Amino acid sequence: MTTTLLPPVPIPVATAPTEPTEPTTPTPPAGPGRSITGQRLPRAAGWAVPAGFAAGGAAALPSGVSPGLVVLAVLVSSAAFLYAWSRSVEGPRYALDRLVTAVVTSAFGLALIPLASVGWTVAKNGSDRFDGAFFTDSMRGVVGAGGGAAHAVQGTLIITALACLISIPIGLLAAVYLVEYGRGDRLSKALTFFVDVMTGIPSIVAGLFAYSLFAMIVGPGVRMGIVGAVALSVLMIPVVVRTTEEMLKIVPNELREASLALGVPPWRTILKVVLPTALGGIAAGVTLAIARIVGETAPLLITVGITTGVNLNPFDERMATLPVFAYTQYANPGVNREAYLDRAWTAALILILIVLTLNLLGRLIARVFAPKTP
């Protein structure tokens, strides 16, 4: 008996009715007179307009007009012209953006003018005596030309090193107390208040304080390197406290909690976890604090004085420092006036180079010792 297989019957599937679509209008291609982004000024307009007005201002300088007025007129006129041009072409939104950009850039340029002027003047006038003899000779027995500032360089290094030995431990311990132990109590609030006050005191007040302190101990008329170191430490301690405090605050609390959870004492947690984490910022802050005090003149003029020979003992008699050396050479020129002025400018140049080096070193330390993140 045979069976016949019938073909499968297709089952109809219900489909949703399709809605009629609206006809779309094709977008016409952008022609020569049509721009999708709108009209814009040339890319070089941001610097070409100020350059053109600056060329016109340079042409007006020989006529006897004040250079400051010429610079101000160039900045204002170039910003106004650029705003009007951009408003007519790009619209008010882009015009306002270009105006604000011009104002901010002009403010930055104006801030750089005094810095560049001082740097160029000191480098130009101080390069005449920037030689080997200036770093090896002293002023002992020198009346006119010749001599050097070897005794002043050595005195500056010794006094600054003593100020660091006094300031860095006190500043670090004070900052550790404020962040790790104080936590808003009365003593920490009082310490924070006095640190803020000390940050803004004039340098001459620090010199008078150190002189009065040692005058009561040793006697009136005292002039020693250690007195100048104490005066500089009064100026340096607030900076060290502030920078260290800010660096310790950004250390994550999770690191402290993890160390304490393992049974590590708080002092060891601070020593092994907190301080190494903030070491880069602390070192950079200390370096900037040194740069802050290395060029102080008023406190050293009162507490240390000046001498013409080399004195490497900070606990006996006067010492020479670069700031006071530059001041005395410029304020009290001798028979050969130009020789004294050249030595003053060279001492100022050395101070600027020291401060610049310390600032670059601080940035390098902060970058090298910063916590590494993936």
Automatic annotation (TrEMBL):
The keyword Cell inner membrane does not apply. It comes from the Bacteria. The keyword Transmembrane helix applies. Its main location: membrane. Keywords: Cell membrane, Membrane, Phosphate transport, Transmembrane, Transmembrane helix, Transport. It is found in: Cell membrane. PROSITE patterns: ABC_TM1. It holds the Pfam family BPD_transp_1. Residues 1-22 have a biased composition (Low complexity). Residues 1-37 are annotated as: Disordered. The chain crosses the membrane at residues 68-86, 98-120, 157-179, 191-218, 224-241, 273-294, 344-366. Belongs to the binding-protein-dependent transport system permease family. CysTW subfamily. Part of the binding-protein-dependent transport system for phosphate; probably responsible for the translocation of the substrate across the membrane. PANTHER family: PHOSPHATE TRANSPORT SYSTEM PERMEASE PROTEIN PSTA (PTHR42922). This is Phosphate transport system permease protein PstA.
